[in-house]
Design a protein that fits this description.
By secondary structure, this protein is an alpha/beta fold. The protein has nine helices and twelve strands.
Length: 290
């Protein structure tokens, strides 16, 4: 009897690469990692053929168009990957009886909430990237109501491009940097998110009744600004760079950013018993790797 297949799309992204690291800890699964080169997810025929060949038991969609500022001018590309391709994957999962886990974003919200966002709170994206990801969520659940959607925020890792690596580079290159202090949220270490996802997959492999479809929120525990995050990176790396707080209007970007991105993670912790580390503990782990 062949082992159940776990298909991971967007394998070169931060969460995709962290899942590659974890794969060796799950020898009872056969992992298949794909990129746009070997399975273009926006090509319906290619996706259906790939599913017919590999018959995955689970599909974890880590593929996304994540260039938030570029999305303002590349709207078609953003919607193709974040919305249409999500529908294509959700449909293939339904056809082949594959459990679908799709990763979404805090950017589906407008950032005006007085309290951490719960899954059922009203959505209102403030930029094209957020709107394209929201459309992906809607198409996903319309096409395949049995799917799990995990919204996350401020993702970083030892892989890929991210805030942590940018800060380390800037702190080495410059005597001082300015970082916005009026955008509030909590970072997500991609390795922690990958672990939570595999916890859900392994749980449903052992007991199908442990699969609970719907939308969930995941980020590390705590509440900080980007400035606080930068200060912690400076302290943990022993940098002598001066980090100064500035308001968002002093750092204009093509795409508007939500000023409040804190996600309430109660549901994912309660339903799936995922343990979520504090943001600082996870930052320390990532910096050790870097």
């Amino acid at each position: 009897m062949s082992q159940p297949v776990v298909l991971v799309t967007g394998a070169n992204g931060q969460v995709g690469q962290e899942l590659r690291v974890l794969a060796s800890l799950y020898p009872t699964f056969d992992f298949v990692f794909t990129t746009r080169e070997n399975m273009p997810i926006e090509d319906e025929t290619a996706v259906q053929q790939f599913f017919a060949q590999h018959r995955p038991a689970w599909c974890i969609n880590c593929a996304a168009y994540t260039a938030v500022d570029k999305a303002e001018t590349e709207q078609e590309a953003a919607y193709n990957i974040n919305a249409e391709a999500t529908r294509i994957l959700a449909d293939a999962c339904k056809t082949f009886n594959t459990r679908f886990i799709h990763i979404s974003t805090d950017y589906v919200f407008n950032g005006q909430s007085p309290a951490p966002y719960k899954e059922q709170d009203a959505v209102e994206p403030v930029n094209v990237y957020g709107a394209s990801k929201l459309k992906g969520e809607e198409l996903c659940l319309q096409t395949n109501p049995d799917a799990i959607i995990i919204r996350t925020a401020w993702v970083y890792s030892s892989f890929g491009k991210n805030f942590v690596k940018t800060m380390i580079r800037l702190m080495q290159d410059r005597p001082s940097i300015n970082v916005v202090n009026d955008q509030i949220g909590a970072p997500t270490y991609a390795a922690d998110l990958a672990q939570c996802i595999m916890h859900i997959v392994a749980g449903s492999a052992a007991d199908i009744a442990s699969w609970h479809s719907g939308i969930y929120h995941y980020s590390n525990q705590g509440r900080i600004s980007w400035y606080d995050f930068a200060v912690a990176i400076k302290e943990l790396t022993g940098s002598s760079c001066t980090v100064s707080p500035i308001p968002s209007e002093q750092f204009p970007t093509p795409a508007k950013r939500p000023s409040f991105s804190l996600l309430d993670t109660t549901k994912i912790r309660t339903v799936f018993h995922c343990t979520i580390p504090s943001w600082k503990e996870s930052l320390e782990k990532c910096l050790k790797l870097l």
